[in-house]
Amino acid sequence: MDYNKLVRDYIPDIIASNGEKAVIRIMDDEEYIMGLEKKLDEEVAEYHESKEIEELADILEVVYALCKAKGHSTNELIKVYEKKHNERGGFSKRIFLLRKEEK
Q: Which of 10, 46, 67, 68 is the most exposed place for a label (fewest CB within 10 A)?
């Protein structure tokens, strides 16, 4: 069966433990980032379908990998998140903006 997609690091070992052989290649930097972006779309779609917390964890895994692939640390990501959160807030108040009007 052909997959042609980025997979988690232990997947080839899991395939081997099931008595099968994984045929793999290592992606270059540009292809890896594109693969992660495609994987992010895939994981978001899976979350929309299932609504399961496991899919949210998969999204987070891909976000962390993208962050690292783009040369940033997860600590840097968290600092940017906190700064933005402190300046603009989060979504806990459930505010739905209808429009902006002149005063």
A: 10
Q: How far apart are CA 48 and CA 42, in angstroms?
A: 10
Cα separation, 86 vs 66, in Å, equals 23
Tracing tokens 């099931």 back to the chain, one arrives at 18
- Under 8 Å between Cβ of 22 and 16: yes
Q: Under DSSP, is residue 77 helix (H, G, I), strand (E, B) or coil?
A: helix
Closest CA to 67 of 80, 53, 83, 52: 80
8 Å CB contact between 52 and 60:
no
Question: Which amino acid is located at 61 in the chain?
Answer: E
Residue that is written with structure tokens 């994984």 in the block: 22
Q: What is the pLDDT of residues 36-58, one digit of tens each?
A: 999 999 999 999 999 999 999 99
| Residue 1: per-residue pLDDT | 87
pTM listed for this prediction: 0.88
